[in-house]
Amino acid sequence: MLPEVSEEHGLLVRTDFSDDAAWDELCVHLQQILDNIHAILLPIDNPDHVGLTPAGLAGRITQSDVSHAFLADHVTFSDPERPLVAVDLYDDPGRAVRVTPAGFLNVQAGLTAGNVLFWEIAAHWTAEQGIYRQGVVSPPPYTNPHL
Fold first, then answer.
1. Which domains, and CATH codes, for the chain?
2. How far apart are CA 135 and CA 132, in angstroms?
3. pLDDT tens by residue, 12-36
């Protein structure tokens, strides 16, 4: 079971248990990033979540005020960039995109503040291989379909 969380927390669920040292380093690094916005990382380190998918995570979080969370899976620990899986829990529960630790702050802060929607990250922020890496990216300009 996952704990109750608030939107200010960066929820990170570990789904791969192959490298304890890498997990510890990742948690320390992400908390240092979140310190920039005075937020707290809530790492979930429980073997009950081994192999958990984005859709599975969406099914385990029932709080309506939590719009997103992150998974640390086998790719996170096997890829040198350590890309996390950002998971939509609000508009399209289970939809996922990869985000590197360098891009984590923008994704976490943007979704928490409501400055960006998950589909915008998936459609416009991700670069090659569907991974958001870093940088401040504005959504595309609004086009009024009635003009």
1. 9-132 (3.40.50.800)
2. 9
3. 999 999 999 999 999 999 988 888 7
